[in-house]
């Protein structure tokens, strides 16, 4: 009996090693990709001065191009390589490109030192990051799936699925820890470079772990049997037989998954900070705690998809998300809405400061109001205006900045509300690697699954913050126009208008998935 | 069920065309006219990335559905 158990144990050990090597590398790539986004405010001040239009244009390109355009190109480029020369070598190349780019961003001198070369170099490196990310995920997911035994593919690949959330979580932790370990001035001067620089250590470790791994057995078998195709791009997108499944994967799965993912993890943070006005640190803790609580569910739903099917798990998550987003975001808004809270009597403190403005005869007037509420919430309002010494000069509208620190009850309630959204993310995202891998044959798997994944996530998902913010600000502007004209406001809750984007995209994807996606799991050893 | 899948093919084609019209004619044109970085960049993304993907992809997907390519 021990003779038959030993090979099984070795096989289990090998599989765990495969999953660990693939997941750690992918996790590091996500970490590298997210620190740029999380530190975008600091990066903008160092490399992209707002008063310079060309630098501002480069900044916009760095934000949009890397997230939207370059990722699908990376998927095509590295997907093709992966289907021609192998999964292992390709995802080692993507790891090295990502590690090098991230480390190099941490070394580039600022705009003040080397001028325009600084934003140009940052843009190039950011594009390289996007390319590498486009190639990495498909390789890791395919590699793990092709090592997994049938009936456990959802569970095994779900480990890869945890890496995007964990990468975001770790990037937030590293940034918060770096910020806490030094003064705000030191962080602004050099501290922001540390999260970029330490990436090289993680990439180095991951590279050596991956280096010792074998090629995927399914790919190796196909290669040995001469079943590798000469042109995977033509085979994937030029033949109706395969291309129809690429379209189905995009419109029936990854498009909806992408918007649910971005709503739960990015729009939630943006909504907390910009709409609910919750302070930077507290809003990041809310997201980090929700991610920490929800990450294990990627594994659970991946495992569940092996038992009851990928389609039912993913579509249930999508349906729940589109039906409950509006009430969830309404509850988030109300939790931070101080007009619904009771002020502690005598807590209101108002201070007024005047500051000289260099090279101007005007004065900056700052009125700071601090209010405490009975549920422990604190609100700080800063009204910054100008005191002009020329009576005839047009008055400038004062800028009002509100920051809210919610009490402990509200804090935990917000964690719960974001956690529900993370749960939806785990339902749609946990089984998707296994789902995509099972849709395509070995010879074109890397190419065919990477493109719909990165269009769904990079383009449909990546556009979400911009489109949702645009829709919400358009509704707010329409209300202001109506108010000024003395008419009834057209939008009762303008802050919820941005949610129509994930609701409509998710709704279309749900119907397509329900009608056309096959609920039965497929064999991949073709 | 195959008949429903086929009929819905027409819905996807119309939806793709409607999405293209909405993104390019109703949104991008107005944004291009307004000018400025904040408006031009989303207009470029709508016109040259999102609209071709949605319209082209949905129309082809709808055609395949009409041709019974997804029947089981």
Structure, explained:
The complex is a heterodimer of chains A (526) and B (72). Chain A folds into 2 domains: 438 residues, Up-down Bundle (Growth Hormone, Chain: A); 57 residues. Chain A is built from 21 helices and 4 strands. The mean pLDDT of chain A is 88. Helices cover 71% and strands 7% of the residues of chain A. Chain B is mostly helical and 72 residues long. In chain B, helix 1 packs antiparallel against helix 2. The longest helix of chain B is centred in the first third of the chain and has 33 residues. At the A-B interface, helix 3, helix 13, helix 20 and helix 21 of A face helix 1 and helix 2 of B.
Architecture per CATH nomenclature, i.e. the level-2 architecture of the largest domain in chain A: Up-down Bundle
Q: Report on the biggest sheet of chain B.
A: none
Shape of chain B: elongated
Gyration radius of chain A (Cα, Å) is 25 Å
Overall domain count of chain A: 2
Helicity level of chain A = over 70%
Task: Please give a quick description of this structure.
By secondary structure, chain A is an alpha+beta fold. Chain A is 71% helix and 7% strand.
Task: Jot down its keywords.
heterodimer, A: 526 residues, alpha+beta, Growth Hormone, Chain: A, 2 domains, four-stranded antiparallel β-sheet, 7% strand, globular, B: 72 residues, mainly alpha, 2 helices
Helix/strand layout:
The complex is a heterodimer of chains A (526) and B (72).
Chain A: H1 2-38, H2 40-47, H3 53-84, H4 87-107, H5 111-114, H6 117-147, H7 153-180, H8 184-189, H9 194-197, H10 199-211, H11 217-224, H12 232-237, H13 240-275, H14 280-294, H15 296-308, H16 310-336, E1 349-356, E2 363-372, E3 378-387, E4 399-405, H17 408-429, H18 432-437, H19 445-461, H20 464-484, H21 500-516
Antiparallel strand pairs in A: 1-2, 2-3, 3-4
Helix pairs in contact in A: 1-4, 1-6, 1-7, 1-10, 3-4, 3-6, 3-19, 4-6, 4-10, 6-7, 6-19, 7-14, 7-15, 13-14, 13-16, 13-17, 13-19, 13-21, 14-17, 15-16, 15-17, 16-17, 16-21
Chain B: H1 2-34, H2 37-66
Helix pairs in contact in B: 1-2
């Amino acid at each position: 009996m021990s003779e038959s158990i030993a090979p099984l144990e070795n096989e289990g050990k090998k599989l765990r090693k495969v999953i660990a090597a693939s997941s750690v590398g992918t996790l590091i790539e996500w970490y590298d990709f997210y620190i740029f986004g999380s530190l975008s405010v600091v990066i903008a001040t160092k490399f992209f001065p707002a008063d310079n239009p060309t630098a501002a244009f480069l900044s916009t390109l760095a934000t949009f191009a890397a997230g939207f355009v370059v990722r699908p190109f990376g998927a095509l480029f590295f997907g093709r390589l992966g289907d021609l020369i192998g999964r292992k070598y390709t995802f080692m190349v993507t790891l090295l490109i990502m590690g090098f780019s991230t480390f190099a961003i941490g070394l580039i001198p600022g705009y003040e030192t080397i001028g325009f070369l600084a934003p140009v170099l940052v843009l190039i490196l950011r594009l390289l990051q996007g390319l590498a990310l486009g190639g990495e995920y498909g390789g890791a997911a395919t590699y793990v799936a092709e090592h997994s035994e049938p009936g456990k593919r959802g569970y095994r690949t779900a480990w890869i699925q945890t890496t995007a959330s964990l990468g975001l979580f770790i990037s937030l932790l590293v940034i918060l820890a770096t910020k806490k370990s030094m003064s705000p001035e030191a962080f602004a001067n050099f501290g922001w470079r540390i999260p970029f620089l330490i990436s090289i250590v993680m990439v180095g470790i991951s590279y050596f772990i991956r280096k010792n791994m074998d090629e995927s057995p399914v790919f190796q078998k196909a290669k040995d049997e001469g079943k590798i195709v000469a042109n995977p791009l033509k085979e994937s997108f030029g033949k109706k037989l395969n291309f129809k499944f690429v379209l189905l994967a995009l419109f029936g799965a990854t498009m909806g998954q992408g918007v649910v993912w971005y709503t739960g993890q990015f729009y939630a943070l943006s909504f907390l900070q910009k709409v609910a006005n919750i302070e930077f640190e507290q809003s990041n803790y809310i997201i980090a705690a929700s991610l920490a609580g929800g990450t294990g569910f990627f594994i659970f739903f991946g495992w569940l998809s092996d038992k009851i099917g990928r389609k039912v798990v993913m579509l249930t998550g999508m349906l729940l998300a589109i039906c409950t987003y509006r009430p969830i975001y309404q509850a988030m808004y109300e939790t931070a809405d101080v007009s619904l809270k009771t002020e502690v009597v005598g807590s209101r403190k108002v201070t007024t400061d005047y500051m000289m403005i260099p090279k101007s005869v005007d004065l900056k007037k700052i009125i700071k109001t601090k209010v405490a509420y009975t549920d422990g919430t604190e609100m700080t309002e800063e009204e910054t205006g100008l005191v002009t010494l020329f009576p005839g000069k047009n008055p400038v509208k004062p800028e009002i900045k509100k920051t809210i620190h919610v009490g402990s009850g509200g804090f935990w309630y917000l964690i719960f509300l974001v956690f529900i959204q993370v749960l939806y993310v785990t339902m749609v995202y946990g089984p998707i690697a296994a789902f995509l891998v099972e849709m395509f044959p070995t010879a074109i798997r890397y190419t065919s699954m990477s493109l719909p994944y990165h269009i769904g996530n990079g383009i449909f998902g990546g556009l979400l913050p911009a489109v949702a913010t645009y829709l919400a600000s358009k509704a707010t502007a329409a209300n202001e126009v109506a108010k000024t004209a003395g008419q009834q406001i057209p939008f009762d809750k303008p802050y919820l208008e941005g949610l129509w984007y994930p609701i409509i995209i998710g709704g279309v994807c749900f119907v397509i998935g329900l009608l056309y996606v096959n609920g039965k799991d497929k064999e991949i050893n073709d | 069920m195959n008949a429903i899948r086929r009929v819905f093919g027409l819905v996807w084609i119309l939806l793709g065309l409607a999405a293209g019209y909405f993104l390019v004619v109703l949104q991008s044109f107005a944004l291009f006219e307004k000018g400025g970085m904040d408006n031009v960049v989303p207009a470029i993304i709508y016109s040259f990335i999102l609209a071709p993907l949605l319209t082209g992809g949905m129309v082809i997907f709808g055609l395949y559905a009409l041709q019974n390519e997804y029947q089981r």
